[in-house]
């Protein structure tokens, strides 16, 4: 009986030590998993930060290119508008000169015809007066 009691005691002691060791293994596994999760979170945050900075820089670069192209297009449009305005001004000046010349020619013709008509009327009036007096 002593031997059986000792066997039961030894078995209980071994089971207790085994359970204690298993509990320590589970605790270590949990600590390790927590540490690995912490490190993975840090790595992920670092990668997200790196990606955000890269996207920011690419956006800034793209914005600068667009601004340069817009300025270039604006200058080109300005020059085309200036050229068009100059052409229109030249055509307007030519048209004005033509109209002024034609107006002057027309006025000269009207003045000459008025003078001729006045002479004819004066002559006829003089002839009519002379006939009436005679």
UniProtKB/TrEMBL annotation:
Renumbered to this chain, region (Disordered) spans: 30-134
- What's the domain of life for this entry? Bacteria
Signal sequence extent: 1-23
Could you list this entry's UniProt keywords, alphabetically sorted. Signal
Compositional bias per record (Basic and acidic residues), positions renumbered to this chain: 30-50, 61-90, 105-119
Q: What is this protein called?
A: Late embryogenesis abundant protein
């Amino acid at each position: 009986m002593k031997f059986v009691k000792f066997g039961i005691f030894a078995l209980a002691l071994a089971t207790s030590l085994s359970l204690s060791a298993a509990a320590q293994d589970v605790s270590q596994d949990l600590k390790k998993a927590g540490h690995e999760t912490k490190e993975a979170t840090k790595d992920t945050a670092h990668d997200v930060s790196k990606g955000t900075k890269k996207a920011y820089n690419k956006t800034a670069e793209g914005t600068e290119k667009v601004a340069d192209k817009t300025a270039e297009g604006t200058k080109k449009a300005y020059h085309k508008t200036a050229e068009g305005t100059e052409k229109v001004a030249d055509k307007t000046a030519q048209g004005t000169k033509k109209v002024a010349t034609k107006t002057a020619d027309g006025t000269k013709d009207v003045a000459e015809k008025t003078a001729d008509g006045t002479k004819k009327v004066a002559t006829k009036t003089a002839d009519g007066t002379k006939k009436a007096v005679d």
